[in-house]
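1st attempt posting a full record on here, be nice pls
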Amino acid sequence: MPLSKADQARADELAKRASAAFAESNLAEVRQLYGEVLSIDPGHPEANYWLGYLECREGNPEAGVSYLKTSSDSAFETATWLAPDSLVELGMALNTLGREAEAAESFATVLERFPAYTEGQLKLAGEMELDEHLVESAIDACHRGLLVDGRHPGLLKKTAELLEREARWDEAADFWSLLREVTSPNPDIHLRIGLCRLRHSDNRQAARAEFEKALEINPDHEAATFALAERLDDEGAFDEVISRLERLAKAKPDAARVPLTLANFLRKYGRLEEAVARWRSGLAKAP
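the predicted structure (as C-alpha cells):
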C-alpha cells in the first residue's frame, strides 16, 4: 500500500537528516533516524542500504544481508540508481558468510542489469585519486567494480597503479599479473611486475625473469633493458651488461639516455676511454 503524502514527507525528511548525520560520522544518530524511516516505510531502499552497510562494517553480516536484500529488491522498483551498489554490498556480505554462490549471483545481476557499473567505478576511482587522502577509497571503488567483472582491464590496471602509489608492492604485482592474463603481450606489464617484485622483497631472480620476458616481446624496450642491466651488474655479468646496452644503442641511435647509461657502466668497469666517447655521444644528442 502506498504511503500517504504525510508519511512520505516524514520519511524523506528523516532520511535527509540521516544522510547529514552520516556525513558528520554520527553513526548512532544515523541508526536512529534510519530506524525511524523504516518504522514508516519498511522497504525504504536507502534506509535499508545504509543500515545494512553499517551492520556489515561492524561485523554483523547476517543482519546486513537482511537489510541489503530488502534494499536491493526495493531499489529495483523505486530507486534504480541505488540497486547496483545494494547488490554489490549484498554480494560482499554473502561472501563474508561463505555463501559464495549467492554472492556470485548478486554480482552477475549487476553485470547483466547495469553493464555501465564497472566503467562508473573506474571513473569514480580516477576522480578520487586526485585527492591523496582518497587513494584508499579509490582502491575500494576499483575493488567493487572487479567483484562484478574481475577481468576488466581498466580496473585491474588502475588498481595496480593505485597500490603502487601506496607502496603496496606485492599486491600491485598481483594485479599487474592479473592484467597480463587478460591482455595481449605487453612489455610494460612485465616491467611493472618485475619492479614491484624487486621493491617488495628484493626478489632479484623473479624481477630479472620479468625483465627478460619484457625484452622477448620488445627487444628495444629501454626501461626493461636498463632494469635488466642493473640486475646483470649485481650478478657480475659485466660483459652482458655492455652487450645489452650496445645493442640498444644501435637500435635507438637518437636516444641520448642509452649512451649515457652505457658510459656510466663503462666507467664503473674501468673502461674510461670508451666511457668518454659514449658520454660525448649522449651529450651531443641530449636536448
